[in-house]
């Protein structure tokens, strides 16, 4: 007899994570109120052989599916692939280097509702810092963390962007939204784009302090080389995000901003933008989403990054 | 407008002179592509936008396979 499908699928992209993936899964199982209702889908995103995700505990292995990609997918496509292998009604999107708070599964089931995405509280594993979702920075197309707990009133618990270290969403809604944008490449911009698209699609993103994910932030000394290698992809993803969503009057401003900031990367990013169909993406979203970006701007009284009103078109 | 935008962005990808105008001589770019004064003003003001924290870090929150990069935190 085939076992009943799990209620929650925890989806983890893992590139060179090694035994961190197993420790993340162990944490989730230990902290779950109902571990039998949880499965894990790990996408090994073309890790080096010695750094492939490792799950050594037998009980954890029984609940875990590892999908290996021989091609480097990037974080968005890896999460989408994990979601396609998931069987749970609910997806818990996180990273392979996190720890879960007690009762996270029950809280997720209690707080989730049709059309609602949960943004969970992110803790730093090496300090007292906490992040409560993010807000969008336009026209740069980056984000800033919210570092205060949102007001308990339901409307005020809505946040612009859920961190992909802790995003909870019904699998059916994730599928309907199209998952993360696979037109983006490798690193950067996936989570705010997904969140803005979700809002424009009629979903809501609600923050909760009842679920905490403790996240390993990369040490400062590792960041420069990592970001240096990913910079062109990050510039491209920001440009694609803005081209898909921003009012036309801000798009060229966004491009110039990135040209000034990243002169060594802008040309290649613009080539990729055209090759990967950013303008077609804009048209598709405009034709299919019930809300325009102007609706999102009004909903959050969004200003540009120096406090000016965001134009309607 | 979107056709004009796409044309400018394509030109900037293919032609170093256009990219240079986009960065350093927005009036020349506006003249060449027929941008309105309002469109040019907005473009010219882009350099006032400071996508950085006081500490000089780019304002982005990017959850990666192994890291989350944040403005002013988490490095």
Summarize the entry for a quick read.
The complex is a heterodimer of chains A (313) and B (75). By secondary structure, chain A is of the alpha/beta class.
Number of strands of chain A: 11
| Gyration radius of chain A, in Å | 19 Å
Unreliable stretches of chain B, pLDDT < 50, 5 or more residues?
Answer: 56-75
Shape of chain A: globular
The CATH superfamily of the largest domain in chain A appears as: Spore Coat Polysaccharide Biosynthesis Protein SpsA, Chain A
| Largest beta sheet: strand ordering of chain B | 1-2
CATH topology of the largest domain in chain A: Spore Coat Polysaccharide Biosynthesis Protein SpsA, Chain A
Strand content of chain A: 15-25%
CATH class group of the largest domain in chain A: Alpha Beta
Largest protein interface?
A: A-B, 71 and 42 residues
* Secondary structure tally, helices of chain A: 11
**CATH architectural name of the largest domain in chain A:** Alpha-Beta Complex
- Which range best describes the helical content of chain B: under 10%, 10-25%, 25-40%, 40-55%, 55-70% or over 70%? 40-55%
Q: How many domains of chain A?
A: 2
**Structural class of the secondary structure composition of chain A?**
alpha/beta
The H/E string of chain A reads EHEHEHEEHEEEEEHHEHHHHH
Strand content of chain B: 5-15%
Mean pLDDT of chain B: 76
Over all CA atoms, what is the radius of gyration of chain B?
16 Å
Structural class of chain B: mainly alpha
């Amino acid at each position: 007899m085939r076992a009943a499908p799990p209620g929650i699928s925890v989806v983890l992209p893992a590139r060179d994570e090694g035994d961190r993936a197993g420790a993340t899964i162990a944490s989730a199982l230990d902290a779950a109120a109902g571990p039998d209702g949880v499965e894990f889908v790990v996408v090994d995103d073309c890790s080096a052989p010695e750094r492939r995700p490792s799950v050594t505990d037998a009980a954890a292995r029984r609940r875990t599916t590892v999908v290996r990609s021989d091609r480097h997918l990037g974080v968005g496509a890896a999460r989408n692939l994990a979601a396609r292998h998931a069987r749970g009604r609910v997806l818990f999107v996180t990273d392979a280097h996190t720890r879960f708070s007690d009762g996270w599964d029950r809280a997720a089931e209690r707080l989730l509702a049709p059309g609602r995405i949960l943004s969970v509280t992110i803790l730093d594993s090496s300090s007292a810092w906490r992040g409560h979702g993010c807000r969008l920075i336009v026209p740069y197309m980056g984000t800033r963390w919210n570092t205060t707990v949102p007001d308990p009133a339901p409307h005020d618990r809505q946040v612009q962007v859920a961190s992909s270290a802790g995003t909870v969403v019904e699998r059916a809604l994730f599928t309907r939204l199209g998952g993360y944008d696979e037109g983006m490449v490798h690193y950067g911009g996936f989570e705010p784009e997904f969140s803005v698209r979700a809002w424009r699609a009629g979903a809501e993103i609600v923050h909760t302090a009842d679920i905490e994910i403790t996240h390993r932030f990369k040490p400062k000394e590792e960041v420069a080389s990592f970001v240096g290698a990913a910079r062109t992809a990050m510039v491209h993803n920001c440009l694609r995000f803005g081209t898909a969503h921003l009012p036309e009057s801000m798009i060229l401003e966004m491009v110039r901003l990135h040209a000034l900031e990243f002169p060594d990367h802008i040309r290649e990013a613009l080539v990729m933008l055209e090759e990967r169909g950013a303008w077609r993406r804009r048209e598709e979203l405009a034709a299919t989403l019930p809300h325009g970006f102007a609706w999102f701007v009004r909903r959050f009284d969004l200003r540009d990054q120096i406090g000016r009103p965001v134009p309607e078109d | 407008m979107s056709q004009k935008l796409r044309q400018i962005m394509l030109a900037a990808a293919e032609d170093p002179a256009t990219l240079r105008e986009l960065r350093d001589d927005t009036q020349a770019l506006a003249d060449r592509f027929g941008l309105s004064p309002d469109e040019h003003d907005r473009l010219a003001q882009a350099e006032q936008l400071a996508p950085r924290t006081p500490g000089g870090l780019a304002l982005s929150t990017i959850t990666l396979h192994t890291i989350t990069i944040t403005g002013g935190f988490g490095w």
